[in-house]
């Protein structure tokens, strides 16, 4: 028995316009994530690791939030800008600017 299911198409004639709009919004926002809020202890631990990695030139793995996604990068700290609150992560002769407010987690490798 082979039944071809048409998904939501079979129900659209019974749905209100508002329901269809809301279903479309849900599909569009399905993959988006919210940036988590870090507590002060975790921020202090990240700050400590950043300073240690910068002074000792250690390799890092950084998880940060960028455009509704979590992104993972590895590299060395090229600079820490405390005025504008960002770091420069050097990886394979490229430098990426990561704002401190977007840092989620940090590991020293």
Automatic annotation (TrEMBL):
Pfam annotation, one family: YolD
Descriptive protein name: YolD-like family protein
